[in-house]
């Protein structure tokens, strides 16, 4: 009796798994997969937990809503033999209306019998007058070569209406070269599957709605997980059960038992022991290639093993590098998991592995990594040797972090006996907001007599200047560095550091022309344009513009500098931090709030361990973003934390700015009592710095500004005017245009309170004229409560059609938008008005030319994340969900050709 095998099939394997309401739509990938309508094969290849199945379920739902016929087959380890595989394949095809003869024997199937089956499928599918789609999920379980041969022939002879979508952890052993050449294959791999930042944000907002993570926490989580959906899901579970754990997001992912179990059981359990040992050993390296892996593990087959890891998608990714050998890294959470396993299983061997890596990196003059591994391996002597034998021209700011780790472990006598190491150590502490330690070392070093060493004596002025910069002492910096001539072949910080700090000091003293001349007199050769110290010098030009209040010029310079800094040295490099603090403040002033938040996001070190001016600017900008996008309470809580930090490092200027910003917010909230407490604290600081110059002259001016705000709020406009005169004199003397406009606005309000309307109007017109010239926006909006009713009537006093009229007409609607406290991401009109910013229009113009997001970023010299962020805003404003719909809307309304 013949058994009807169809009745033995497990019916649930033909139904896709249900996806919860907490999953987010993968619109960009679904759009990519929809190209399968014109292709034969779709491949979705990725590591475990990358959301392959969820993506295909969403794609299937999209296709079925459009009327397509889509069948599903979930494969398992039970389907590795041809007979079982074919039984389920036939069952899935039948659900598409493709019925074939079941009498063909498959046990011991020959090429001829497989050809008969393929012919039958092709003939049956051709007779169905519909587009047919078959999803084969978890294809990696198919093991019988004859099953692969069957699928290969189906692909090669498939009728135009039959399409296959395969999801697997590894590339299937199928030959698709010919189909690729014909454009008949759609492929998504491990590089495409992770969530991008926008998707991570959407996932966290959907699944953690009650927690309302801050933008910085979202960026941190995205970076920690690299958009790996499985690890994001685990972090969501952890935060739901323990909301307080958000304070330790860095540790949430890999330390969870669930993730440990997932990686052990789903990724590692079936690997050969030799391969698992190899992966654990190379996990001590943040990046690795075949040569390094062989040196660390002693395994001559390192290249083949790396190839296997890549082929099997074992959470390994290629890293861009100027090298003939490909470089790799593990997913960060997977890397930490492997390193933890290594320590648990073979802790005695870890130091030796680090030492091997240190020697490999040192031989190739990759100093930062050599130092890091030597220190981690306990070989402090070799770490010191790496520094001392390196040519000055090879030392850069990227070595600061590993150098600090080394210094914390070295005895002081070793440090003082090695002049070059001492010089770099002092710089490292001075440049990372620890000038007290650098000062103490410097005094001990001078007393030891070693400072007479010619090499050290030449470089000491730079160390002293950096310390003075950290202390906001302007004139000593000018005295030390005017006329200083570095050696051409010295450290890049010696070549570009003195003109950078001298220019900064000149600007602090109000000598902006001297600052720019100083930078012009020390041009950066083309070969050094991406040197980090040279990028910091370039960033100083942006700061000079920012101090003068020239926002539009500062934006042009700042965007280019930050883009190059991130490309050359990374998101958290010193040059990127400096550029980010300036650009965030610029974007905030221009009322491009989302862009300002994006620039600051996940750069927490910027708020703690950078140069004082960068820390201060980033802190005030972050507080203002919190006020605009979240609440006054959030902004005040952040400012209190920063206040404690600035007190702890003795940074009075930044402290005064934090206190003054608290006063401003408290008065907006009607909290005059706390505002008065903070003004009293400010008064003490103002008295301590009375008569100061340079950066420190800013302190009494900011104190006077805070006092004036409180006096206006308590109905003492005449006394407020006296304080504001001081603010204005400071702004004029030091050429601080933005602060000067704030003083004019508040003086106008004070005169209006005194019923001196003509004087008030004159001051406001002066403010408008200066604000227009500088490109100011939020300086006006932040005084909106009292200012808006006074600005609107001024239109009658300004010549119709003049540029000042246009500026005022652009400004006034923004007050209306800001009344509820919400601001559009780019200061444009509300979403309902569908007004796009110039940048959004530029991006739409380029994507209308079928450019990818990456190509758009390169064309506009902006980051890929900025392109995605702007597109998200465009979709929200236009009420669309795809690039195609956005371009169609823009063309229909004549915004793009």
Shape, principal axes of CA atoms: globular
User: What name does the CATH topology of the domain at 5-188 carry?
Assistant: Rossmann fold
Main sheet record:
5 strands, parallel
CATH superfamily (homologous) name of the domain at 5-188: P-loop containing nucleotide triphosphate hydrolases
What portion of residues is helical? 55-70%
Poorly predicted parts: 819-834
Number of helices: 44
Strand content: under 5%
User: For the residues shown, what is the average pLDDT?
Assistant: 85
Helical/strand content category: mainly alpha
Q: Can you count the beta strands?
A: 7
Evaluate the radius of gyration. Answer: 32 Å
CATH class of the domain at 5-188: Alpha Beta
Major sheet: arrangement of strands: 2-3-4-1-5
CATH architecture of the domain at 5-188: 3-Layer(aba) Sandwich
């Amino acid at each position: 009796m013949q058994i009807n095998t169809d009745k033995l099939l497990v019916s649930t394997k033909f139904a896709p798994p249900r996806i919860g309401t907490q999953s987010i739509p993968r619109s960009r990938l679904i759009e990519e997969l929809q190209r399968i309508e014109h292709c034969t094969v779709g491949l979705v290849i990725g590591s475990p937990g990358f959301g392959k199945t969820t993506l295909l379920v969403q794609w299937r739902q999209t296709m079925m809503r459009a009327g397509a016929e889509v069948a599903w087959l979930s494969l398992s380890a039970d389907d590795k033999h041809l007979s079982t595989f074919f039984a389920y394949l036939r069952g899935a095809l039948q659900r598409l209306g493709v019925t074939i003869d079941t009498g063909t024997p498959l046990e011991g199937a020959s090429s001829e019998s497989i050809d008969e089956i393929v012919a039958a499928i092709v003939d049956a599918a051709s007779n169905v007058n519909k587009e047919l789609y078959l999803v084969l999920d978890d294809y990696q379980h198919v093991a019988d070569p004859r099953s692969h041969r069957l699928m290969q022939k189906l692909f090669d002879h498939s009728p135009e209406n039959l399409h296959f979508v395969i999801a697997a952890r590894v590339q299937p052993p199928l030959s698709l070269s010919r189909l690729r050449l014909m454009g008949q294959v759609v492929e998504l791999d491990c590089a495409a599957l992770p969530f991008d930042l926008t998707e991570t944000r959407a996932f966290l907002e959907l699944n953690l709605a009650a927690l309302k993570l801050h933008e910085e926490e979202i960026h941190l989580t995205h970076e920690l997980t690299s958009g790996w959906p499985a690890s994001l899901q685990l972090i969501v579970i952890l935060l739901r059960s323990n909301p307080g754990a958000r304070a330790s997001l860095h540790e949430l992912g890999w330390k969870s038992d669930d993730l440990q179990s997932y990686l052990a059981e789903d990724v590692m359990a079936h690997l050969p022991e030799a391969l698992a040992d190899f992966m654990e050993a190379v996990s001590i390296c943040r990046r690795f290639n075949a040569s390094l892996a062989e040196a660390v593990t002693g395994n001559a087959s390192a290249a083949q093993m790396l190839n296997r890891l890549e082929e099997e998608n074992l959470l390994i990714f290629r890293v861009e590098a100027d090298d003939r050998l490909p470089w790799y890294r593990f997913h960060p959470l997977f890397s930490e998991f492997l390193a933890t396993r290594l320590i648990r299983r073979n802790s005695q061997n870890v130091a030796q592995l680090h030492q091997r890596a240190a020697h490999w990196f040192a031989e190739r003059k990759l100093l930062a990594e050599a130092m890091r591994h030597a220190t981690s391996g306990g070989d402090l002597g070799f770490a010191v040797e790496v520094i001392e034998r390196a040519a000055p021209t090879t030392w850069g700011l990227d070595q600061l972090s590993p150098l600090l780790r080394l210094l914390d472990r070295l005895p002081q006598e070793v440090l003082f006996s090695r002049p070059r190491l001492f010089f770099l150590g002092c710089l490292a502490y001075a440049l990372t907001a620890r000038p007290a330690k650098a000062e103490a070392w410097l005094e001990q070093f001078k007393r030891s007599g070693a400072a007479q060493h010619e090499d050290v004596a030449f470089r000491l002025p730079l160390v002293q200047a950096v310390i003075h910069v950290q202390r906001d002492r302007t004139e000593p910096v000018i005295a030390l560095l005017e006329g200083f001539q570095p050696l051409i072949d010295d450290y890049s910080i010696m070549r570009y550091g003195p003109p950078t700090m001298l220019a900064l000091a000149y600007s602090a003293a109000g000598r902006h022309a001297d600052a720019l001349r100083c930078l012009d007199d020390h041009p950066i050769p083309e070969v050094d344009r991406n040197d980090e110290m040279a990028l910091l010098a370039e960033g100083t030009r942006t700061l000079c513009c920012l101090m003068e209040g020239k926002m539009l010029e500062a934006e042009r310079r700042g965007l280019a500098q930050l883009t190059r800094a991130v490309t050359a040295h990374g998101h958290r490099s010193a040059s990127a931090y400096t550029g980010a603090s300036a650009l965030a403040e610029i974007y905030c002033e221009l009322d491009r709030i989302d862009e300002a938040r994006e620039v600051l996001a996940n750069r927490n070190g910027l708020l703690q361990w950078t140069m004082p001016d960068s820390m201060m600017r980033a802190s005030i900008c972050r507080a203002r973003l919190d006020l605009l996008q979240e609440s006054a309470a959030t902004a005040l809580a952040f400012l209190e934390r920063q206040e404690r930090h600035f007190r702890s490092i003795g940074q009075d200027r930044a402290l005064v700015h934090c206190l003054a910003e608290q006063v401003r917010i408290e008065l907006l909230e009607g909290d005059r009592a706390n505002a008065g407490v903070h003004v009293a604290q400010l008064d003490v600081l103002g008295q301590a710095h009375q008569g100061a110059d340079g950066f420190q002259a800013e302190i009494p001016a900011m104190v006077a500004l805070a006092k004036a705000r409180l006096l206006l709020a308590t109905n003492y406009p005449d006394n407020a005017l006296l304080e504001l005169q001081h603010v204005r004199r400071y702004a004029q003397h030091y050429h601080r245009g933005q602060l000067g406009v704030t003083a004019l606005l508040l003086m106008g309000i004070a005169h209006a309170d005194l019923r001196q309307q003509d004087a008030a109007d004159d001051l406001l017109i002066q403010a408008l004229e200066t604000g227009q010239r500088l490109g100011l926006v939020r300086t006006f909006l932040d005084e909106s409560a009292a200012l808006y009713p006074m600005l609107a009537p001024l239109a009658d006093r300004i010549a119709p059609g003049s540029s000042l009229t246009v500026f005022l007409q652009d400004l006034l609607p923004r007050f209306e938008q800001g009344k509820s406290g919400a601001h559009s991401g780019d200061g444009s009109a509300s979403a309902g008005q569908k007004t796009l910013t110039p940048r959004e229009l530029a991006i739409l113009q380029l994507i209308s030319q079928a450019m990818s997001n990456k190509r758009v970023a390169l064309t506009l010299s902006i980051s890929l994340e900025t392109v995605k962020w702007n597109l998200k805003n465009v979709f929200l404003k236009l009420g669309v969900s795809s690039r195609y719909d956005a371009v169609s809307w823009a063309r229909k309304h004549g915004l793009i050709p």
